[in-house]
Design brief:
Layout (H helix, E strand, L loop, with lengths): L1 H17 L18 H20 L1 H18 L1 H8 L4 H19 L7 E2 L6 E2 H23 L10 H9 L1 H7 L10 E5 L5 E4 L6 E5 H8 L11 E3 L1 H9 L22
Helix pairs in contact: 1-5, 1-6, 2-3, 2-4, 2-5, 2-6, 3-4, 7-9
């Protein structure tokens, strides 16, 4: 299952930029909701662990999921995750890498269609590991941004682009809107220069960088901070509410908020 390798390589790219982070640097506040670098790794490590537990021990997964939801309701999201992960700083980085390396190798051997439970509807392991890559890439963005590092992108981002395409209807439903009958045409240029096309020709068109499209659907950039060419009523509306991740409705960052800092 190639998506498992893509997840591993995405994680390795993020690990590389965190290699020289130590001590108080872990408390550096990012541009994402006041999360620190420590918070980012707590979040990724916790849900990587939940994904692996869904595969290896469904009963334990359900029990931990129930405790997680109860904690979120009583204490909030950040407090609950931070209570469930003991490691911090360098130790957390090492534990996170050990787990994602294990997942990358073991999940590569799975039947992509195998089903696993999750917080919402059950899904295929291919969808589960793609979600883990998406989370790693999306939350990695605030890390690269705050450290002032330009990320070297690769065509494995296609998994995230496809996730954005597949959640076109979801983005509307989660915001209480009726999805349009057809999705806008996408003409996106991959990091390699390959043209990726989705949808049928029509009045609505989104053309430009596949990376920037992925940034918009993961809400790491406001569409106004990208060079995407967005034309048509539906295309404009979709890019204003796009959300390829689960949970309640979220709004994109305001224009100018998320960017790579100068160091």
């Amino acid at each position: 299952m190639e998506q498992a390798r893509d997840f591993f390589e995405e994680s390795e790219a993020l690990h590389a930029v965190l290699t020289n982070v130590h001590g108080e640097q872990w408390q550096t506040v990012t541009q994402f909701k006041g999360w620190t670098l420590d918070d980012v790794l707590v979040h990724l490590h916790f849900w990587n662990g939940m994904a692996d537990l869904s595969l290896t021990d469904e009963a334990a997964f359900q029990e931990r999921l129930a405790r997680t939801f109860a904690g979120i309701q009583s204490k909030g999201f950040r407090v609950t995750e931070n209570e469930m992960i003991a490691e911090r700083g360098d130790d957390l980085r090492d534990a996170w890498r050990e787990l994602y390396s294990h997942i990358g190798s073991t999940w590569a051997e799975l039947d992509p269609k195998q089903r696993v439970k999750w917080a919402g509807p059950e899904m295929s392991v291919r969808s589960s590991i793609t979600a883990r890559q998406m989370e790693t890439w999306a939350h990695g963005q605030e890390v690269f941004d705050i450290l002032g590092v330009k990320r070297q992108e690769h065509d494995r981002i296609r998994n995230i682009v496809v996730l954005g395409v597949n959640t076109f209807g979801w983005a509307y439903k989660v915001h209480g809107k009726e999805p349009p009958e057809s999705m806008p045409r996408l003409e996106l240029t991959a990091p390699s220069g390959t043209l990726w096309e989705f949808g049928d020709p029509g009045a609505d068109l989104i053309r430009g960088s596949a990376v920037e499209f992925a940034q918009v659907v993961t809400q790491t950039r406001n569409v106004g901070d990208t060079s995407l060419d967005v034309s048509g009523v539906v295309a404009v509306e979709w890019m204003s509410i796009a959300q390829c991740f689960a949970g309640g409705p979220e709004t994109p960052p305001v224009k100018g908020l998320r960017h790579r800092v100068e160091v």
